[in-house]
Amino acid sequence: MAIIGKLIKAGIDLSAKLQSTEENPQELQENQLRELLSKAKDTAFGKYHGFEEILNSDDLVKNFQKEVPIFKYEQMHAQWWSKQERFPDITWPGKPDFFARSSGTTGKSSKRIPITKEFLATMKSVGTSQLNALHEFDFPETLFESEILMLSSSANLEKNNQGFEEGEISGINVSNFPDWYDIFYRPGKEIAAISDWDERVDAIAEQAPEWNIGAIAGIPSWVLLMLKRIIEKHQLKHIHEIWPNFQVYASGGVAFETYREDFDAICGKPITVLDTYLASEGFIAYTAMPGTMNMKLALNHGYFFEFIPFDKRGVDETGELLSDPLVLGIGEVETGQEYVLLLSSCAGAWRYVIGDVIRFESMDPPQIKITGRTKFFLNVVGSQLSEEKMDKAILELAEKHDSTFNEYMVAAIKNEAGEYIHQWILVSEIQANGLAEELDELLKAANKNYGVARSKALKDIQVQVISKEQYTDFLGTTNKKGGQTKTPKVMKEEKMKSLLEFIAQA
């Protein structure tokens, strides 16, 4: 493996040096849109919305935005995607080979996102760009001599009666790995195909001593559980006792900061944490520079992006899109401003609302940070709490108690008097005494609108603390236990009451 590691590192360094200077982001994006429209102009969607005329117009982007409405999942699925199981050429040429069941945290049921061969190629293309970006980090050759552990959802896909295969996007990606990936990919397709989460992790823990892991990729909460399972099984002080070359962790799915201390605690030496924005709808961005968790937007990989300001120009007070929001292109956005992201892609998504809120941290190159979900905007009574502000308060509370709160859930619910309160559930091992008052003060300091709400319609804040075991058991009852499940931070009242009932019964 040593000679392979040297060759891989040399190849990455050479590729980085040979890369030409990137074009203007606005030109890159217009070229992506033109290519997407050209390929889809003869589909039912393309004919209905006049893609041919848009391509021949003087202002491609402006006419695209004029002729094609903004779609949420429910609209896109009902009007177009649901027809793709029976008919070809609906929103993209041919039929999709797969449907990705979204493992997201919002909505009552899983979304089914079409996955085409071209789309899978874009995922690999962005992954290659991320690999080439490792040149900037100057990692030692030992990293490239080792293996990568990807904690995906199950690669055992389900076949429906129309001949399509379904699963979560990470499982679809793993199932499409070429055989030569077995040289460095762990846990391997056989273990990855185990459907039961606990059985899969037990199999990983059993095989762990035989592997030389240099990098791990996956959602923090589940990766952390897996690493703790390995440490416990083999009676280790830290994970580096078994994997001394473990140097890189590629996080994704949720904000990493609430997990940082717990990762530090199970490592024997520092690791480099990279962020990735990999959703069922695409591999959208990745950390490309050392010293930051900001992510470079994938502007030249088969995606066209649009941005709606996450303020009164684009959304109402509950975070819902306005009927006619301001929509901006990559050449019109500003650093420091939050935006709702729209995506058009070669999976047949058109002006599609992913549901994420991002903020531009730089424009040369365009780098972003995910600040939350539109549905994680807690504003039932004017509190205006974004996920980022809630994360900040939780981190400060954890620091104050010299502890950690990896996961938390919150909902605005009505008490017996019919008044709104915020019900918080924190996942930790400390006692709940006094936490409500402390968290209340931290939130007031983080957001003046919250303080105003607390003096008026928001009558109280209540906090319960549950263990990690209780939390994962609850996810098991909702079929949300697995390597790609994201933490549902802001819950609907009904969901929170179900969780409170589960805690009471436990």
Automatic annotation (TrEMBL):
Pfam families (alphabetical): GH3, GH3_C, GH3_M
InterPro entries named in the record: GH3, GH3_C, GH3_M
Domain GH3 middle: 299-373
All copies of domain GH3 C-terminal, residue ranges: 390-494
Protein origin, superkingdom: Bacteria
Entry-linked PANTHER family: GH3 DOMAIN-CONTAINING PROTEIN
Official protein name in the record: GH3 auxin-responsive promoter family protein
Organism: Algoriphagus pacificus
